[in-house]
Amino acid sequence: MSSAAGLGGGPPAGSPAAAARPGRRFAGVPYFLLLPGLLWLGVFFVVPMLFLLSQSLQTGTLETGYRLTFHFATYTDALSQFSRQFLRSFEYAFLATLLALLIGYPLAYAIALKAGRWKPVLLVMVVAPFFTSFLLRTLAWQTILNSDGLVMRFFRGTHLISLTSALGWTNGNQLLSSPLAVVTGLTYNFLPFMVLPLFASLDRLDPRLLEAAGDLYATPLTAFRRVTLPMSMPGVVAGTLLTFIPAAGDFINSQLLGNPKTAMIGQVIEGYFLRINDYPTAAALSFALMVTILVLVSVYVRRSGTEELV
Amino acid sequence: MTDRSPSDRTPQFDPALARGLVSRRGMLAGIGATGLATLLAACGTKGTAGKANPTAQAATDRSDTEKVVSWSNWPEYIDVDDKTKTHPTLDAFTKQTGIKVTYTEDYNDNDEFFAKVQPQLRAGADTGRDVWCSTDWMVAKLIRLNWVQKLDKANIPNAKNLQDTLVNVEFDPGRQFSLPWQSGFTGIGYNPKATGGRKIETYEQLLTDKTLKGKVTLLTEMRDTVGMMLLAMGKDPANFTDADFDAAIKEIETAKNSGQLKGFTGNEYGKGLASGDIAACLAWTGDVVQLQADNPALGYTLPASGHMIWSDNFVIPNKAKHKKNAEVLIDYYYDPKVMAQVVDYVNYISVVKGAEQLLLADDPEVAKNPLIFPSEAVLARAHVFRGLTEEEETKYNKAFQALTTGG
Q1: Cα distance from A212 to chain B (closest Cα, Å)?
Q2: Same structural domain for residues B165 and B296?
């Protein structure tokens, strides 16, 4: 009888014990539903993070082994030695994000609102580069920008190359091996991460809102500024985050398209892990990079008022 | 009793509640409670087991029951049949011995490969590979760590064909642990189209010639790039001091800061050198000889101040399951007839005596190429980087890393 009540039947009259039972049964549900996600986070994020944090505070060598000595000086040493690469990474990532936004917004807007029946085709085209490897796509830029290429001929013909050299964006009369090439590569490689969230938020935009704005005598520009742009802000925030975060940690673009003076922090970390086998320094740099990104992102998200995204 | 107190109500699934459960602060507090310090300390790693212990290093050899051997090597480092894309010498080996070779080109870089196999070797586990080819200094490191096994020369009678100059090397006297696969020089490659037709003959030109600005690459191999610099400064890479090393790094640093350098590369400089995006670079002999086949104009010089020589060597890692098969394989390649076939294709310097004489009849052009069969005089100018202690290696690697990715 009481078990039948527990299965969700009518309220069992009178007995306080029976009244408490459904409550106890449901109390665990939110936790239970969170379990897969929490387990995932725990095993693949928290535990590795702790390993990384621990590694960064250890001393020793690969051959003698590492022991935790809470050697915080690793952080100060690494950060003072590689502060330039650190700042450069954020500078390049910021520029690439900005460029991706400037290119991606009109593109996403056109696909979402103007493409009509071409929408699926255009979306596939945005994603299509992912069918080839990241490395190959970056290497392709070496061919695009090399000295015999059309782009270089255009830059030479219009003397743009002297301008970019004067600005320090290029070096020694060539486009390759320059900050310009690195930022171009970053922008290109992460553009789809910008376009897709922008598309998702613009695609959901109710066209009747724009019609209503028109009825209220808003010019198309005002309608865009007051309706479309605010409605697409979640897409802008998501897109910029998805572009900025991987771009800041990237090491392939600067390695293949840059020169020794464009090294980003990802390259330094790679070198310390794989070449020098100095795991503590590499771990300290990785951890510092992650914390910096986390802080920047929290400030950014709080500022843009779209906290439901994180 | 229809009116129940609020506490009696069935709790609803509330997103705010869920968020509360996993708030970052809550998470950190939880971690703190379990004792962060002890947790972190548990993440330490043990050092490598110090002393050599042959029984612990060897695995049960399955060579007699499993006729296979797994060999990891550098890309484009063996003969290839242009039509079938197979490796004729490997096919002949299988036919002759019945041993099937799993040949994998997954050795791109000494440090990278080391990082890849280091966890298994440290744990005393099988790496899945029976033999691979490491550069001299990496062999030194592997021997120092006791991560490679002594070769059983009874299975490698042809080892007597090894070039005399390579028998007693500093890191492995008498070649107990390693046998060379190929040797090569590090010199200067240039594309006359991009240098304005001028020859590039010295390291100084690479670092200071203004017409090459932004179009010079050096190598990510510290021993090649710094070794050549030491030679250019009149020092001996086999016998130098910390101060010499620092001075060499400083010279290259100056060139880097002036915007002279395009970058530091592994053997991916080939494409750029052929197209002229790289005007001049430090380059390995075999690569350039192969490039010259398609671009005859490319130039190559071994500077008068001297050049570096290196070998990549067969080693058998701990716990390899088919050690004997690997030794039979090494023996096979030490047959001058077989090595001649390989050298004819890869164009590096033969480490096996007698290959030159055989090639003189078959492919005199290759046999007469001074970069493949160098004269005594050229060999006399070849230098080897001295062996480093672990401490020195870390120190020099750091300085070099700061050079390649710093600034």
Answers
A1: 34
A2: no
Q: How many independent structural domains does chain B possess?
A: 2
| Residues B162-173 as b or e (16 or more Cβ within 10 Å = b) | bbeebeebebbe
Q: Is residue B39 part of a domain?
A: no
Interface of A with B in 268-287 (CB under 8 A): 268, 271-278
Does B346 reside within a domain? yes
pTM passes above 0.90: no
Same domain, yes or no: B177 and B294: no
For residue A277, the model assigns a pLDDT of 83
| Parallel/antiparallel/unpaired status of strands B216-219 and B280-284 | parallel
Are A270 and A264 in contact by the 8 Å Cβ rule? The answer is no
Is the complex ipTM higher than 0.90?
Answer: no
Residues B163 and B193 in one domain: no
* A131 secondary structure, DSSP code: G
Interface size A-B, in CB pairs within 8 Å, comes to: 155
Domain presence at residue B13: no
Asked if residues B200 and B348 have their Cβ atoms less than 8 Å apart, the reply is no
Of the partner residues A23, A142, A263, the one whose CB lies closest to the CB of residue B406: A263
Q: Same structural domain for residues B277 and B397?
A: yes
Domains in chain A with CATH codes: 84-309 (1.10.3720.10)
Q: Is the domain of B289 the same as that of B351?
A: no
Write the pLDDT tens digit of every residue in A113-167.
998 899 999 999 999 998 999 999 999 998 899 887 889 889 988 988 888 888 8
pLDDT digits over A214-270, tens only? 999 999 999 999 999 998 999 999 999 999 999 999 999 998 999 888 999 999 999
In a domain, B320, yes or no: yes
Which residue, among A191, A134, A184, A129, has the nearest Cα to A155 in the 3D structure? A184
Residue range of the domain that includes B149: 54-183+310-373
- Using a CB–CB cutoff of 8 Å, tell me whether A55 touches chain B: yes
Neighbours of A76 (CB within 10 A): 10
Contact A260 B404 (CB under 8 A): yes
By the 10 Å C-beta count (0-12 exposed, 13-18 middle, 19+ buried), A52 is classed as: middle
Residues B73 and B87 in one domain: yes
